[in-house]
Amino acid sequence: MTTFDKVVKILVDYNDCDASEITMGTKFADLGLDSLDTVELVMNFEEEFGITIEMNEGLQTVGDVVKLIDSTQG
Amino acid sequence: MIKTPLCDLLNIEYPIIQGGMAWVADASLASAVANAGGLGLISAMNADADWLRNEIRKARTMTDRPFGVNIMLMSPFADEVAKVVVDEGIGIVTTGAGSPLKYMPAWIGAGIKVLPVIPSTGIARRMEKGGACAVIAEGGESGGHVGELTTMALVPQVCDAVSIPVVAAGGIADGRGIAASFMLGACGVQVGTRFLVAEECTIHRNYKDKIIKAKDISTIATGKRLGHPVRCLKTPFSRGFFRKEYDPSVSDEDLEALGAGALRLAVQEGDEKRGCFMAGQVAAMVTKEQPVKEIIGEMFSEAEAILGGAGKWVS
To answer: Residue B230 phi/psi, 5° resolution?
Structure first.
């Protein structure tokens, strides 16, 4: 399972959205997620991947998160 | 006598924190609360480092008890005021309107106890992980910037989510609110609206009169469209603002501009036409101006009586 697939799985699980609608370019805001949801999601990503994610304005899209996770997994 | 772990944690006599209300929470109010045995706060709001430094030094001439600073994280001066609290040797910081995580290592390193105001269990857990010594779970009954969850629903869930102390905020104006907060699992309360009418609170007379006159249905949460709702008293200004939120011909920028500076106009000028009089839903329960000491004393003796009888339905 790629990082992207895992991220999508967490998103689908959290938001009850359709996995086929999510691409690397999908913005969290486009999924109707607000800042509180984003915090919850980031924590879910942290738990899944065993990393610490610094929350900042740079994390707008699914691709941003995937790249960040991959960069920490070496 | 009511004593909880929050008293030891913050070195205070009563487990009560005064809300870090922008334009309201100045040296006068913070020192009065500190002198009365609670945790007084100075709000750094949108002010710069010089203003905050002066206010801290002024408060130190008015009390020798500890007080804290509330950092409003949306402030354009957040970086510099975050440094002032370290330089001035402030021991306790509460935060609002954003995530304090980027400042927490420096604060904690300087021995500062950090209590973020939080609106959800997820953020509470994140703050615990970041080193917060306690969290302030604030329900949407409160005045000013509000979250979606109510105090009744939020506090017990936050208590379940974290193992650090939880302070309840939003909707607490008397001893019943304190007792209820303890029942929900909190070990302290934060109170804003009731302190607005404290004798030591320096806000405009019109603001105090409006709070004293307020009824249960007197507040409204505006600004939902902009993503950061604010609870304030219903006035022609706030009702007008609320209507404009649903008017698609009004842009978000115009709406932001309309709200800018409106709190200052209420607090300093008592401007009934253009001011935004922030207040919680408990404004109606606030019926008279009193010294801070009397407010805190009264609230805790009520709470003590209620908690003493808490077993009355249990057989």
So the answer is: -130, 130
CA–CA distance, A60 with A37 (Å, rounded to integer): 13
Number of domains chain A is built from: 1
Q: What is the CATH number of the domain that holds A60?
A: 1.10.1200.10
What's the predicted TM-score (pTM) here?
A: 0.91
Would you state the structure tokens that stand for residue B10, as one six-digit string? 């913050």
CB–CB of B120 and A34 under 8 A?
no
Distance from first CA to last CA of chain A, Å, rounded? 16
The pLDDT tens digits of the residues spanning B120-156 come to 999 999 999 999 999 999 999 999 989 899 999 999 9
Nearest CA in chain A to B227: A34
Residue A18 appears among annotated catalytic residues: no
State which residue of chain A sits closest to B102, comparing Cα positions: A54
pLDDT digits (tens, 9 = 90+) for A34-62: 878 888 888 888 888 888 887 766 788 89
Do the beta carbons of residue B201 and residue B29 sit within 8 Å? yes
